[in-house]
Design brief:
Blueprint: E1 13-18, H1 21-33, H2 43-64, E2 67-72, H3 73-78, H4 80-91, H5 97-107, H6 110-115, H7 122-135
Parallel strand pairs: 1-2
Helix pairs in contact: 1-2, 4-5, 5-7
């Protein structure tokens, strides 16, 4: 861990998003192994990488004791609005409808967003259309 920069950072907040180790490893294998020119990894290797990364985060948190919020990856996916509101509160920023829509766009697969468009209210649909126009 490179600590040089820590002398230049004042107060800071850390957002830790946790996910089941097996699910993370499975996702890592999928994403690494589909890339060209990258050495393939197996599930056990991915699991060890995931555990090592988690240990590094724990060491950082225990050493610097930052203002910390723990979020669940599953909650971020399945309860996006609740989790984004919780995160906004922690960061002391307003949680607007536009930010909720942007968060949903970031978190949820674009095809799933298209299939769930009917769940959004009229204002959210309008924001979604504007974002889609800028992206495509």
């Amino acid at each position: 861990m490179n600590e040089f920069f820590m002398d230049f950072i004042g107060d800071f907040k850390v957002v830790r998003v946790s996910r089941n180790v097996d699910c993370t490893a499975k996702s890592l294998v999928k994403h690494v192994n589909k890339r060209k020119g990258v050495e393939k990894i197996n599930f056990e290797e991915a699991k060890n990488i995931t555990k090592g990364y988690s240990k590094e985060i724990e060491l950082f948190v225990s050493r610097y004791k930052p203002d910390l919020i723990d979020l669940s990856y599953e909650d971020l996916i399945n309860r996006t609005e609740f989790t984004v509101r919780e995160l906004a509160s922690f960061l002391d920023i307003p949680c607007t409808e536009q930010r909720l829509t942007l968060a949903a766009d970031f978190v949820i697969d674009k095809e799933e967003i298209e299939s769930r468009r009917s769940e959004f209210n009229a204002e959210r649909k309008n924001i979604f259309r504007q974002l889609k126009a800028k992206l495509f």
